[in-house]
Structures are given as structure tokens and as C-alpha cells.
Amino acid sequence: MTMAIPNGELQLHGLRGATTSLANTTEAIEAAVSELVTTLVQCNRLTPEKIVSITFSVTADLNACFPAAIARRQRGWESIALLDCQQMYVEGDLKRCIRILAHAWLPSDQPPQHPYLGETSLLRPDRSAKTDNS
């Protein structure tokens, strides 16, 4: 999703990404979410005021904690709309998967980057690298 604002300097983008947790524990989920959020922020050069909202979805085998509560610990994220939901179950889906959909304002000349970390490259076989420009 891309929406330009009238001055043409920024565009609203839907940023996707995913990772997997090593286990269904608070510590493992915290580590996975922290890495995913850090990567998304760094590769898209995001600041809190550029982020509109973030939705986290997790597979049914992850229920030890809420990813949004982990993300909310980021400095300046107190006003960002964060939401958790459970990913729809599909036979054969990747286990212990955490997906992210962030809506953020990016400079119009900056292509969005979508981080797929660890085993989640299986979700997007069309992407050979951790991030890309689509």
C-alpha cells in the first residue's frame, strides 16, 4: 500500500516482515520481536513519528506473551497504535512464526524494505535476501 501526501515528500507504505521464535517462551518471543522490530526500523530508517500503526500476528503455537507489549518498550512508541492477533491456521504453515504489518511514512524516493528473518524466507521464496525493495 502506498499513499502520497499532497506535498509529495512522503508516502504512506505498508511494510511487511516476519521472523520465527526459537520457543514459546517470553524470552524467545522477546528476542525474535526485538530483532524483527530493530531490523524493520533500521532498514527503513524509521523514527517513531513516521510510524502510524503496527499489527503483529502470531501462529497459534505462540501464546507466552504479546509481541505488541514488547514493541511498545521502544523509545517514543507510546503513541503508536499496536495490535496483536492470531494468524489463521493453515496446514503445513511455518511453526512459531511472528508476522508484522507496519504502516509508515517514508520519503517518496526511499523504497520500502520488508525484512524476512531466519526461517521466514520460506514464506517468500521469491525473495533471495533478508530484505528487498518491493
Blueprint of the fold:
Layout (H helix, E strand, L loop, with lengths): L1 E3 L5 E11 L5 H18 L7 E8 L8 H5 L9 E6 L10 E11 L27
β content, as a range?
25-35%
Helix content: 10-25%
CATH topology: 60s Ribosomal Protein L30, Chain: A
Overall, the morphology is globular
CATH class: Alpha Beta
Low-confidence stretches: 128-134
CATH superfamily: RutC-like
Give the total of domains: 1
H/E topology pattern: EEHEHEE
Q: Main beta sheet: strand number and arrangement?
A: 5 strands, mixed
Rg: 15 Å
Structural class: alpha+beta
Strand segment count: 5
Q: How large is the count of helical segments? A: 2
Distance, first to last CA: 11 Å
* CATH 2nd-level architecture: 2-Layer Sandwich
Look at the structure and give the mean pLDDT: 89
In short, what is this structure?
The protein has two helices and five strands; from the N terminus they run E-E-H-E-H-E-E. With 134 residues, it is α+β, with helices and mostly antiparallel strands.
Task: Explain what the structure shows.
- The protein is of the alpha+beta class.
- It has one domain (2-122): 2-Layer Sandwich (60s Ribosomal Protein L30, Chain: A).
- The chain is built from two helices and five strands, in the order ββαβαββ.
- A five-stranded mixed sheet has the order 1-2-5-3-4.
- It starts with a strand and ends in a 27-residue tail after the last strand.
- The model is unreliable at 128-134 (pLDDT under 50).
